[in-house]
Amino acid sequence: MNDLILTQSDGLVKQEGDEKRVSARELYKSLEVKRSYRFSDWFRSNSKMFVKGTDFEGVDVTTPYNQSAPDKLQTLEDYLMTMDMAKHIALMSGTSKGAEIRKYFIEV
Questions:
Q1: AntA/AntB antirepressor domain: from which residue to which, for each copy (predicted)?
Q2: How many CA atoms lie within 13 A of 41 on its CB side?
Q3: pTM reported for the whole predicted model
């Protein structure tokens, strides 16, 4: 779990005012979801029982297109989720990292 905290702490949990939010893309990576399960499909299926604008909101994230061309940028869609939504998704993920990440969220 310390690896997750050290490598993802700048991207996984974000402070937004007095509330902590979780990046859906970073959670997806941290849960080690099967690569054949695309982020957009994963988020769509996991967000069905949550309310946009209350439990999560869409944001655009600009990142380098690839490491060999860091000056070329691409814009990706991400979502900032409440801690409760992230805990629920982590618990229901079915991955070995899910319970570990949920425990981390409870402690944060």
A1: 22-93
A2: 6
A3: 0.77
Q: Which residue has the tokens 């690569």?
A: 35
Entry field: residues in the chain: 108
The residue among 3 and 103 whose pLDDT is bigger is 103
pLDDT confidence band for 46 (50 / 70 / 90): very high
Would you call 73 helix, strand, or coil by DSSP? Answer: strand
* Beta carbons within 10 angstroms of residue 18's beta carbon: 5
d(CA 8, CA 62): 17
Above 80 in pLDDT, residue 82? yes
